[in-house]
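User: Before I run my own analysis I want an independent prediction to cross-check against. Here's the chain; please return only the C-alpha cells and, at the end, one sentence I can use as a sanity check.
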Amino acid sequence: MFKDRTEAGRLLAESLNFLKDRKDVFVLAIPRGGLVVAAEVADFLGSPLDLVITRKLGAPGNPELAVGAVTQDGESIVEPELVRRLRVPNSYLEREAAAQSVEIGRRMRIYRGDRPYPSLEGKIVVIVDDGVATGSTVRAAILSAKARKAAQVILAVPVGPRETISGLSGVADRVICLSMPEPFYAIGGFYDDFGQVEDETVIRILENHRADG
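Assistant: C-alpha cells:
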C-alpha cells in the first residue's frame, strides 16, 4: 500500500538508482496520475521529463473495457482474443481509434502547447505510470517509444497484476514493478490517496521541469 503517488514515485525512483545521473536517460509519463509519480523519478535520476499519451479503445457499450489502445503516433494496438470474443467489427475499431487520436492531439496541445516533441533516438526511455491493470495503454506507450528509435525502453510502475507485468516484459526491454498483489482489483485500491490529478497540475509539473532545465 502506498500513501500517495508522490511516495510511490520516490520508492520507484530508488529502484532505478542504476540510471542515476546518466545523460542518455529520458523519463516519459503517462498522464495524468503517472506524471506525479514520474516527476519524482525524473528528479531523482536528474533526467528530463515529458509525456507519452496513449488512449484505450473502449469496447462497444462498455467504454471502460479496453479492447486495445492507440499511440500518439496514430498506431492502433488491439487485444485480438478480446476483439474476437466480443465480435468487435473493424469498422468500430477504426472509428474509435480516430476519435481517440483526436483526443490525444487535444491533450498534447493543452499540456505541452506547440513545443516540438523531444527526440528519443538512442535514449534509454523510462516510461512511468501510477500502475497498470490490463496494460493496453502502457503497451502502446512502449511501442511508441520504440518507434521513435529509443535504444532501450524500461517500464517502471509501482503496482500491477503479475500476469499483466509478465506480458509487458515481452514488450519492454525491462520492467520494474514494486508490487504485484494477488488478487488484483483496481490500481486505486493500493493507494491511501488516489485522488484525481487535474489538468492544471499536469501543466504545472511540466512547466516546473522545463524551467529546471
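Sanity check: The CA atoms of residues 88 and 150 lie 33 Å apart.
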